[in-house]
Design goal:
The chain has 8 helices and 2 strands; from the N terminus they run αααααβααβα. With 177 residues, it is mainly alpha-helical. Helix 2 runs antiparallel to helix 3, helix 3 packs antiparallel against helix 5 and helix 5 packs antiparallel against helix 8. The longest helix has 22 residues.
């Protein structure tokens, strides 16, 4: 695994541990889901339901694939070696990417404005300076917007262990663990 991917894994674990108890459990995903949905107040009910389902699937996939001892939590040791496995997590990540990007486009024009992007990413737990660096790396248009497609692709790419020098690396640039 590339160094950049290893840094992304560590950051994702810390974000998924939304309640800060050192492990990932279903409560973490409920907490993160609630924060994200609060940030997406203008999105329609279908988009909100899709994100809620994507977060639930994400937790279910993690618990099924990584909870080696069946204790209902995923430790960092269980998480590290497997979370970037595209065969195990590719479909889950794709569903999450599409749902989150759609949530960022409440008016359905295919474009995501920076303020909502920042709000959603902050709700997940990323640092604002890194979020803005990521948005800039996505190449916003003259009205400071990116496309839904670009964001969804960026999320999927973030979980690819062979990738380096990707826009998503901006999220760990100043906060690498």
């Amino acid at each position: 695994m590339r160094t950049e991917a290893a840094q992304r894994v560590e950051l994702v674990f810390s974000l998924f541990d939304a309640n800060g108890n050192g492990v990932i459990d279903s409560d973490d995903f409920e907490l993160m889901t609630d924060r994200v949905l609060k940030a997406a107040a203008a999105s329609d009910d279908d988009a909100k339901a899709a994100v809620r389902a994507a977060f639930r699937r994400y937790w279910t996939t993690l618990a099924t694939e990584l909870d080696a001892n069946g204790d209902g939590v995923v430790t960092v040791e269980e998480f590290r070696p497997f979370v970037l496995d595209s065969e195990r997590f590719g479909p889950t990540v794709a569903e999450f990417a599409e749902a989150l990007a759609r949530l960022g486009d409440p008016d359905g024009d295919g474009l995501i404005e920076r303020p909502l992007f920042v709000s959603l990413m902050t709700a997940i737990g990323f640092e604002e300076k890194n979020i803005n660096a990521l948005f800039d790396a996505f190449g916003p248009d003259s009205q400071d917007r990116i496309t839904v497609t670009v964001w969804a692709a960026g999320i999927k790419e973030y979980y690819a262990p062979e990738k380096a020098g990707i826009p998503g690396d901006q999220l760990v640039a100043a906060t690498a663990v």
